[in-house]
Amino acid sequence: MLTTTAHPAQEAPATGGLSPGVRRITLDAAGIPLSALLSEPADGHPPRATVVALHGGGMSAGYFDGQAHPDVSLLTLAARLGYAVLALDRPGYGASAPHLPTGQDLLEQVATVRLALADAQAHHVSGPLFLLAHSFGGKLALALAADAPPDTLVGLDVSGCGHRPAASATLLGRGERTGLRRLNWGPLRLYPDGTFREAGAVVAPMPGQEIESAQEWSALSSRLLPCVRVPVRFTFAEHEAWWSQSDADLTDLAERLSAAPRVLVDRLPGAGHNISLGRAARVYHLRALAFLDECLDDGAGPAAP
Q: I need a labelling partner for 28 at 20 to 30 A (CA). Which of 109, 183, 214, 256 fits?
């Protein structure tokens, strides 16, 4: 989740570029176009798995291809390690925004993204699917996993999302004057120089239906979490301010995922809510990909073709 104002007067305009090896594609979700970024291993070998990256509210797929420092991009790191990454612009963002001017609620997004992933698997990606998701994207990942047909996902990794709010979702959409910068970023020293110049290219308005849906998560999560049947890993940033993360909160979160074969909860020092744009991004991404390795080694999910 991201808002636009940081120190705009101190930085040059955003470039809006992509990292080497990253390309833009468009997926078809039954007539709704979903734009996406795709990276693949440069050696031409089939990927060990495809990481489906789902951004948070007010962001876009570019969240996972941060341009402020070469170490920040998940898309380039994962490709070097033998994985494909498909970072979607969620419904209501990117190419789908004109078709969905008020966006979609969480469960509608589940249906749309499932159709887009079917198109991606038919034309663009191969191997098992692993969801890596941030903030509202984490809610979508958990909802997708709760309703996933058997053997369609190998696991999921979620950051910036819990189940007990520490701040009210009614603050969303109200602008920086409400203190959203602190909630979304934490201390600005946690981010590489140039972050706020480059981030301007990946910010997008948070659609109205999504804002309303975010306010319903606490109740909806009680129904969805017990239905997740794949390994799950959560990461909470040291300076995460949207979600309660006491030991009791995180123990309760893990216990609610009663059908998941494994639930891990990690805390990441030196990070704010927008982990994948911060100085700690590489550490987080490496840990998430290591968890994916473990899921593959455990034999969870479908085998690569």
A: 214
Length of the chain equals: 305
CA distance 100 to 265: 34
Domains of the chain: 8-297 (3.40.50.1820)
Q: Which two tokens stand for residue 235?
A: 């990461």
Instruction: Please indicate, yes or no, whether the overall pTM of this predicted structure exceeds 0.70.
Output: yes
Q: What is the CA radius of gyration of the chain?
A: 17
pLDDT in tens, 139-186: 999 999 999 998 999 999 999 999 998 887 767 665 554 467 788 888
Decide: 23 and 75 in contact? Cβ < 8 Å. no
Tens-digit pLDDT profile for residues 114-129: 999 999 999 999 999 9
Query: 47 in the Ramachandran plot: left (φ > 0), alpha (ψ -120 to 50) or beta?
Result: beta
What is the three-class DSSP state of 91? coil
